[in-house]
Amino acid sequence: MALRATKKTIIIASAVTVLLVGGGAAAAMVISGQQAQPRAEASPSPEATPEPVVTEQPAVVPVTNVARASVDAWTLADRRVVGTVLPEVGDAAQGAVSLRVDAPADDADIIAASAPVALAPSTDYTLRVSVRVLAEEKTETGVRLNVAGQTFTLPELDAEWETIEFPFTSASDQPAASTFDVAFSGAVRGFGIDDVSITAAGGDNLVPNGSFEAVQTPAGIVNDSLIMTDESALLAVSLAEGPVQWSATSTSGGEPITGEFGSTGPLSALPLTGVSQGHYTVAVNDSAGRQIQTDVAVIDADGFAVAQDGRFGVGAHVEKEAFVGTGSLAAAIGFAEVRNDISWERNEKVAGQYAWDENYVREFERMHANDVKLLGLVVYGNRLYGARKAPGNETSIQAYGAYAKAVADRFDLVGLEVLNEFNHRENDTACGAAPACYVPIAQSVRDHVSTAYPELPIVTGSTALYDRDWFVGFWQAGGMGVTDVASYHPYESWINRDADLIAETVQQSYADMQETAGETRPVWVTEMGFPTHYAGVSLLEQGQMMVRNQALAFANGVEKYFWYDLVNDTPDPAAGEANFGLYENAPRAGVVALAPKPGAFAQALMITQLRDKAFTSDESDEQTSVEVFGSGDEATRIAWAPQGEVQRTFTSDVPLVVTDMSGNTETIEPEDGEVSLTLGASPIFISSESE
User: In angstroms, how far is the first alpha carbon of the chain from the final one?
Assistant: First the structure.
């Protein structure tokens, strides 16, 4: 295929023009707007003049965001198939609305969006689209456009809208009813499409609602997520036409940031101008007197979304209504994995037959669509085989192993965890909670699963607290032979209100493995959190405790850490078990998305600050904790003083960038090769200023 291009428009023709010159053939590419020039006779040149090297400037990525809305006349892929196919506001090619496709899962042959078109046989048409990718540099999209049995592949794109034309001729047997499809294979990030038309010469556009302006959405703040980056810091709103006043007040205090914008049409973009990194309460007042308030989080990140980090996971309960959309909620914070029960009794109600609960199927597929992996927690017993809380006889133990294999067959897993807090529950089996009773259960899982899935980790232990006596007994009973990963829930840190206790806990767990079994296994903390109910920690303290606890966990050898949990289980602020979440339990009035708690901001901030950097060293002293991730100029330090304010001096020849838990950032110049900082109980992130 040949490309004919201007700066903003590319025409992709079905064949090249062939010119006969001196008895030979050559392909000619014609640039729109240029006239053919007479060819000069060749003359000898004493020296070739080097061509200047033209370096394209990176495209400017606009501030955009997506709305939870449907698009008239278009069929959008289910969110179990594609992470995001939603109307986008902030910088459309035409009008106020475009369509965003964001599909981080590496899947093949997916139709993201489709619109009906009526084509005549044997007719010349032009397909015209405006497209882009939210990236500074040109990148492959993986997107193709299908119409009339023909497929058109897009060129590399960046954040600047490109208008592309594809001339085509319909087939002689073209049916009247057809579709225009936006399809893709592989991961697609931040693809935008707008101003879609299919026209015959002199004819009307055959694509209905080709600029996506006609949408259906509830009134109010309709962002799909209220966790944003500096490239997505705006509210998608459906408000009364006219002036809208808004304010954003930092959760950490200070004067509110205020602004005004004009609302038009069914869907508008309200830019949060002047709102920097942080957690805020946003209030909106429209011209009809409607008042809406919600919390939002804004993260300085390299992109329109927080990048996921495979070390960080989160617990969920997709059986509950509040957890609908778990994959999107987790990915927005930067979690790469989710831990969830997969109840045996819910899925095997007839012996040997597995009928999967729709909540699991829907939410686990949606997790996959957001490239979020599942740590499957295979729980508990099944009264088909006797005991309800744990398998307790040989028949039930083997049936449990077979069920675990069925789970691995059905879902996209990062690990299989054998029961939950076996040491803690009042087991209704004759054997009880002793580690010797647990080994045969784990052995059954290994026997059924590991032959078919040798790379899938079998995660054992999953104890309430780090139960040292139980684990020593487990290793003595042969637990190493059934274990790929050891797990426990070190709530000692919560019980004692001391986030730093986890360091000692993890060290002890590795020492016990080595001393008892002569070898170790990786440790995953599969459940840990700090609740924000009246007897818990404050909303801001939750984030501070989280960062300290996770930093020390990784610094002492923990491979993965699953926060408990993603969403508050109920709206009751007094219920301890219900307030471990990072999101509120239900959307606020006039808002479609769950509001993030300050803890969600803290988690996204930590993930973004670390940027996949591995733990490298500990620089702590008697009064301060300093954990180093990455090395050299790329290192990020997480530093705090557990007992109160302490001065700590860092050696540096370059300015240091200090980010606190509110998101505030300060650049500090060194004096004589040193930077002195005041550390307190709230951790800070320290990195070298980039050029």
Answer: 42
pLDDT of residue 388: 85
DSSP-derived secondary structure letter, 83: S
Q: Could you say which architecture CATH assigns to the domain 220-299?
A: Sandwich (2.60)
Query: What CATH architecture does domain 318-513 belong to?
Result: Alpha-Beta Barrel (3.20)
The predicted structure's pLDDT at residue 55: 62
Q: Where is 600: in which H helix or E strand?
A: helix 598-610
Quick check: 170 and 125 in contact, CB under 8 A? Answer: yes
Cα separation, 604 vs 613, in Å, equals 15
Nearest to 158 by CA among 140, 137, 128: 137
Instruction: Tell me the CATH number for domain 81-215.
Output: 2.60.120.260
Amino acid at 426: E
Dmax of the chain from CA atoms?
100
Closest by CA position to 6, among listed 164, 138, 157, 153: 164
Mean pLDDT for the chain overall: 92
**Strand, coil or helix: 126:** strand
DSSP 67: B
Non-local (6+) Cβ contacts of 506 within 8 A are: 490, 523, 552, 553, 556, 557, 558
Give the contacts of 42 (CB within 8 A, at least 6 positions apart).
none
Residue ranges in the chain whose pLDDT is less than 70:
1-55, 426, 691
Of 314, 306, 311, the closest CA to residue 332 belongs to: 306
292 token code pair: 């809406």
CATH architecture, range 615-688: Sandwich (2.60)
Strands (E), 134-204: 143-147, 150-153, 162-169, 177-184, 188-200
The tens digit of pLDDT for each residue in 61-70 reads 999 999 999 9
**Domain ranges (residues) in the chain:** 81-215, 220-299, 318-513, 615-688
Helix (DSSP H) and strand (DSSP E) numbers for the chain: 10, 41
Indicate if 615-688 has the same CATH topology as 220-299.
Answer: yes
CB neighbour list of residue 420: distance below 8 Å, 6 or more residues apart = 341, 377, 379, 380, 462
Cβ neighbour number for residue 630 with a 10 Å cutoff: 17
